[in-house]
From TrEMBL:
NCBIfam families: GSH_gloB. It comes from Candidatus Erwinia haradaeae. GO terms for molecular function: hydroxyacylglutathione hydrolase activity; metal ion binding. Binds 2 Zn(2+) ions per subunit. This is Hydroxyacylglutathione hydrolase. Gene3D superfamilies: Ribonuclease Z/Hydroxyacylglutathione hydrolase-like. Its EC number is 3.1.2.6. Pathway: Secondary metabolite metabolism; methylglyoxal degradation; (R)-lactate from methylglyoxal: step 2/2. Belongs to the metallo-beta-lactamase superfamily. Glyoxalase II family. Residues 11-165 form the Metallo-beta-lactamase domain. Thiolesterase that catalyzes the hydrolysis of S-D-lactoyl-glutathione to form glutathione and D-lactic acid. Zn(2+) 1 binds at H53, H55, H110, D127. It is an enzyme of class 3 (hydrolase).
Length: 255
């Protein structure tokens, strides 16, 4: 199985898995045109789509693709039923496609019905987990997002994190401002700055790497609590996460 990424719209990733039989599946096709271009170039057969949530920059190309491929299987949570999903899934379901088994993991927070798909080593996590950051909370609660990230953080350390946006530099800018003395964050921040000047992509990443540089996965750190709390107040991990997400929202817009 081969993993490919397509950049669409401004900074969206459309993820593609293809097998030796030239069959492929797409994750969150925000735009049909680059998908169709790649399929034609590679002579692939599009068999299925996986949708993580209902936002337009994740489902925008689905209906067009369905007009061209009317037998296309489109998996998605109930919130995507009006946007082309024809097989509705939920947390705990298993999907078998292209000789792969995907476990559906409910990851609410960004939206109420957001899901992620895991088939070792690939994790397609939409707008839940990014490199060095996490998604904004629109429909859900900070507690839901916190629990979603905890669940994803239980996966194997060599899991490939396939988030849906190129936000790594933005996220690291915040993390570096908060943790200027952290050598892992500082080193990766300058590395990513150089990569992005050359328009080199920073995804996928690994869970092991994210545990070092993603401060939203480091809510147990005593040092983090000291940095973001006022008057030494004692907060639990969920409260620390909520405050951290709030500070990121105020620091710089991302999603």
């Amino acid at each position: 199985m081969t993993l490919t990424s397509i950049i669409a719209l401004q900074d969206n990733y459309i993820w593609v898995l293809n097998n030796d039989n030239d069959q492929c599946l797409m994750v969150d096709p925000s735009d049909a045109i680059p998908v169709l271009d790649l399929i034609a170039k590679k002579r692939w057969k599009l068999k299925a789509i996986l949708l993580t949530h209902h936002h337009y920059d994740h489902i925008g190309g689905v209906l067009t693709l369905l007009t061209i491929y009317p037998d296309l299987i489109v998996f998605g949570p109930p919130e995507t039923s009006y946007y082309g999903a024809n097989i509705l899934i939920q947390h705990g379901d298993n999907i078998n496609i292209l000789d792969m088994n995907f476990r559906v993991i409910g990851t609410p927070g960004h939206t109420l019905g957001h899901v992620s798909y895991f088939s070792y080593p690939y994790l397609f996590c939409g707008d839940t987990l990014f490199s060095a950051g996490c998604g904004k909370i629109f429909e859900g609660t900070s507690q839901q997002m916190f629990e979603s990230l905890k669940n994803l953080n239980r996966l194997p350390e060599d899991t490939l994190i396939c988030g849906s946006h190129e936000y790594t530099l933005s996220n690291l800018t915040f993390a570096h401002a908060l943790y200027p003395e952290d050598s892992d964050i500082r080193g990766y921040y300058y590395h990513v700055k150089e990569l992005r000047t050359k328009n080199i992509r920073t995804l996928p990443t690994t869970l092991a790497h994210e545990r070092k540089i993603n401060i939203f996965l480091r809510t147990k750190d005593i040092e983090l609590q000291k940095k973001i709390t006022i008057n030494g107040s004692c907060l639990n991990e969920s409260q620390i996460f909520k405050l951290l997400r709030y500070k990121k929202d105020q620091f710089q817009e991302d999603i």
